[in-house]
Design goal:
seven-stranded mixed β-sheet, alpha/beta, single chain, 10 strands
């Protein structure tokens, strides 16, 4: 079978790209290739948003499917150290991408060909549907393992979209790595397979024409209002988090004082004996 010609290709600095093909009528497949593991850098986010804009403004409404040209990874998440050092990364790069996906005016499907970890999995959750390679990859929120707190929209998207609170508990507090069958059973993904299986799903669900009425994105804004609000108010989120940390510090000090008081009383009683 001859390769499907690209509708357009966008570069991702320094050596990556996103290219768009059309495996079926009005099914737009965005494939990202940013070695080694599709990290969500500012350049990656900007090219991803531009690709979505091009499809929205210059092509007939249909379906957008995203996947990776790197067999091992859909996305391995943020370049964490760089992300937390940049004051503008979340408000100007990552959150605009996530909001665009979450409220996109066409159906979106994340076709996870390999691992989706941390913010890579969060990016997949911003899509309407998720498919996973049944033979390769794990889905995991591993922030527990490298000591990173979840920011408000990172948490709310799972609360809103996962069918079971116990699944979210397992993801966050155990950093469990879900294989494909486990992810399907827990409702993290909607199906297993790659392009042929996704195309069959699109046909069965009659997704091709869902965007025609013009309210698809508007409906999603209301559905996911909590997460959309967090994505739009990064500065407000940071202020709330800072206040929570201040209160936590005071509580830690009070807790330490109570324990010290208990130890002193215990030692005093022991001395009398």
């Amino acid at each position: 079978m001859a390769p499907i010609p690209a509708l357009f290709t966008l570069s991702i600095d320094p050596k990556g790209s996103i290219f768009c093909t059309q495996p079926s009528q009005r099914v737009y497949l965005l494939t990202f290739d940013s070695p080694p593991d599709n990290r969500l850098t500012p350049a990656f986010c900007a090219s991803f948003v531009l690709a979505l804009d091009i499809l929205d403004k210059r092509f007939p409404k249909g379906i957008v499917v995203t996947t990776s040209a790197i067999a091992k990874f859909y996305s391995n998440g943020l370049d964490y150290e760089s992300a937390i050092k940049s004051k503008a990364f979340f408000s100007e790069s990552l959150y605009p991408l996530w909001r665009r996906l979450l409220t996109y005016p066409m159906p979106t499907i994340a076709m996870m060909n390999g691992h989706a970890f941390a913010a890579g999995l969060m990016t997949a959750m911003m899509h309407d549907y998720r498919f996973m390679n049944p033979h390769r990859g794990f889905l995991c929120l591993n922030e527990l393992e490298f000591g990173a707190p979840l920011k408000p929209p990172m948490s709310s998207i799972f609360r809103q979209k996962l069918p079971s609170p116990s699944t979210y508990r397992t993801m966050v507090l155990e950093a469990k790595r879900f294989n494909a069958l486990e992810a399907l059973e827990e409702g993290i993904v909607d199906g297993l397979g790659m392009v042929p299986d996704v195309l069959k799903f699109v046909e069965e669900m009659k997704l091709i024409d869902k965007a025609k009425s013009g309210v698809y994105g508007t409906l999603k804004k209301e559905m996911w209002r909590e997460t959309v609000g967090y994505l739009q108010d990064h500065s407000g989120n940071e202020k709330r988090v800072a206040e929570e940390l201040r209160v936590q510090k005071l509580e830690d000090e009070q807790q330490e004082e109570r324990v010290v008081g208990w130890e002193r009383a215990k030692n005093h009683r022991g001395a009398k004996l």
